[in-house]
């Protein structure tokens, strides 16, 4: 075991590996980065270092050790040294170990053989985090509300921001999934790097690979220059995959490999490029159900769903609606260069009782319209133009009709209900139903609903 200690000197890293050559490689690499390393060959040895002097900026540990495994060390550090980032080194292709470590609280992972480029990127991110060099803005100012559901989300975002683990954000359309992703990025060690948001449902399937991974000049018709993709654009930062459920199965395979290997190959290229991105994904659809139906790969879901954050619907945060409405109205009025009007008591009560199928996005649209059309100095119920509740529709009981007719009537009722809730906005209705716009258009045509 080697040791370099200097409390007043360079930042120090605890390296734990039972292979002397790996310890030496990591030690030399860290020294070139201006860091000092204390090296341990076992879990027990590492525990002794932590007990004697826990002022480390990072712990790098192998998964397989003579007297235990890296997960034991991850859990110990999480319990006794919660501010110390710990990264694990796993065997090549050992996705299960990497995911287990991230779920246990590891900051990040590296695969053997260790890429020095990836190691340096990981160490730099961890040092920034451990030094407190990341923003500490008030999440409550961006994610307003005092309901238990929102307090839980804010607390989880603060904890998740200290990790590099992939995050899966679930929730209804308009519930603030992208806002949560941006807050995780802004509060984490990657805040100074790019945040690239991608709507997976808006990319044509034929262009998907080149959009994600880039392309070389001449790789296909129209590729008149080398071009980077989303992964390269987000290098060092965060890649947010919105509506990830819309990715076709063929692209899911390629995405899984890019996440596991931390390398991508441009279309038309023969070499791979290392990329350092944190993946955050979101969808309003039920990914678990899609896995069971064979529409989403289980291995990719397992890899993406390391940490899940569920964004509550606005209906679950009813008591927050008055304060949220006043905040949004103030922001809209400020952008319009006019004083913010008041919202009278009856209008606030109406908002409080409204079901908000479109969540916060719908609330913002309602208030923006009311502000634009407002004639007086206070918003009343009539100014809100809230959609009336959808009328009750008799749905046939199974067995009363032939199966196909029963299914058609049930589908017709579901589509009409979604259109009513979204004021006949077909794009929004498709999102509410969990189908693509093209699928909704086909179904409406088949059921004679386009007239």
What does it look like?
With 451 residues, the chain is an alpha/beta fold. The protein has four domains: 12-130, Rossmann fold, CATH 3.40.50; 145-310, Rossmann fold (3-Layer(aba) Sandwich), CATH 3.40.50; 314-384, Orthogonal Bundle (Helicase, Ruva Protein, domain 3); 389-451, Homeodomain-like (Arc Repressor Mutant, subunit A). The protein contains 20 helices and 16 strands. The chain has helices spanning 20-32, 43-52, 70-80, 95-103, 116-130, 139-142, 148-160, 177-187, 208-213, 230-233, 249-261, 287-292, 298-304, 321-336, 345-353, 359-373, 381-384, 403-421, 426-433, 437-446; strands at residues 12-16, 36-40, 58-62, 64-65, 68-69, 86-90, 108-111, 167-170, 195-199, 238-242, 263-264, 273-274, 278-283, 307-310, 342-343, 378-379. The strands form five sheets. Strands 2-1-3-6-7 form a five-stranded parallel sheet, with helices on both faces. Strands 9-10-13-8-14 form a five-stranded parallel sheet. A hairpin with an 8-residue loop joins strand 11 and strand 12. Helix 14 crosses helix 16 (359-373), helix 18 crosses helix 19 (426-433) and helix 19 (426-433) crosses helix 20 (437-446). It is globular and about 75 Å long. The N and C termini lie far apart (79 Å). Residues 1-7 have low confidence and may be disordered.
What labels would you give this structure?
451 residues; alpha/beta; Rossmann fold; Helicase, Ruva Protein, domain 3; five-stranded parallel beta sheet; 20 helices; globular; disordered N terminus
């Amino acid at each position: 075991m080697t040791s370099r200690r200097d409390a007043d000197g360079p930042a120090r890293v605890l390296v734990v590996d039972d292979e002397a050559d790996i310890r030496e490689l990591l030690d030399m690499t860290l020294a070139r980065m201006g860091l000092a390393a204390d090296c341990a060959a076992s879990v027990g040895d590492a525990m002794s270092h932590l007990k004697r002097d826990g002022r480390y900026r990072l712990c790098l540990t192998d998964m397989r050790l003579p007297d235990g495994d890296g997960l034991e060390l991850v859990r110990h550090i999480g319990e006794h040294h919660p501010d110390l980032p710990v990264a694990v080194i796993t065997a090549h292709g050992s996705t299960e170990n990497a995911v287990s470590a991230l779920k246990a609280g590891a900051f990040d992972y590296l695969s053997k053989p260790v890429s020095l480029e990836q190691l340096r990127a990981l160490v730099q991110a961890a040092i920034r985090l451990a030094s407190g060099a990341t923003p500490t803005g008030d999440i409550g100012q961006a994610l307003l509300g005092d309901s238990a559901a929102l307090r839980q989300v804010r607390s989880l975002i603060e904890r998740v921001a200290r990790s590099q683990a992939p995050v899966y954000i679930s929730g209804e359309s308009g519930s603030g999934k992208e806002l949560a992703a941006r807050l995780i990025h802004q509060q984490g060690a990657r805040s100074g790097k790019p945040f690239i948001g991608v709507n997976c449902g808006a990319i044509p399937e034929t262009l998907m690979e080149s959009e994600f991974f880039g392309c070389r000049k001449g790789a296909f018709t129209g590729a008149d220059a080398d071009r980077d993709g989303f992964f390269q654009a987000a290098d060092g930062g965060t890649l947010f995959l919105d509506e990830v459920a819309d990715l076709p199965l063929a692209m899911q395979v390629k995405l899984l490999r890019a996440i596991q290997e931390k390398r991508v190959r441009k279309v038309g290229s023969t070499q791979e490029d290392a990329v350092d991105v944190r993946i955050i994904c979101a969808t309003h659809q039920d990914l678990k159900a899609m896995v069971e139906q064979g529409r989403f790969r289980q291995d990719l879901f397992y890899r993406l769903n390391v940490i899940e954050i569920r964004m509550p619907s606005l209906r679950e945060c009813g008591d927050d609606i008055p304060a949220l409405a006043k905040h949004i109205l103030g922001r809209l009025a400020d952008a319009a260069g006019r004083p913010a009007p008041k919202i009278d008591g009856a209008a606030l009560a109406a908002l409080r009782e409204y079901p908000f199928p479109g969540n916060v996005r719908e609330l913002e649209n309602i208030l923006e319209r009311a502000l634009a059309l407002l004639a007086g100095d206070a918003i009343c119920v009539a100014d809100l133009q809230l959609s009336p509740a959808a009328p009750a529709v008799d749905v046939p009981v199974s067995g009363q009709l032939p199966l196909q007719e029963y299914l058609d009537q049930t589908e017709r009722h579901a589509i009409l209900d979604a259109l009513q809730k979204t004021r006949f906005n077909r794009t929004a209705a498709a999102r509410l139903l969990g189908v693509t716009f093209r699928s909704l258009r086909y179904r409406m045509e088949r059921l004679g609903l386009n007239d």
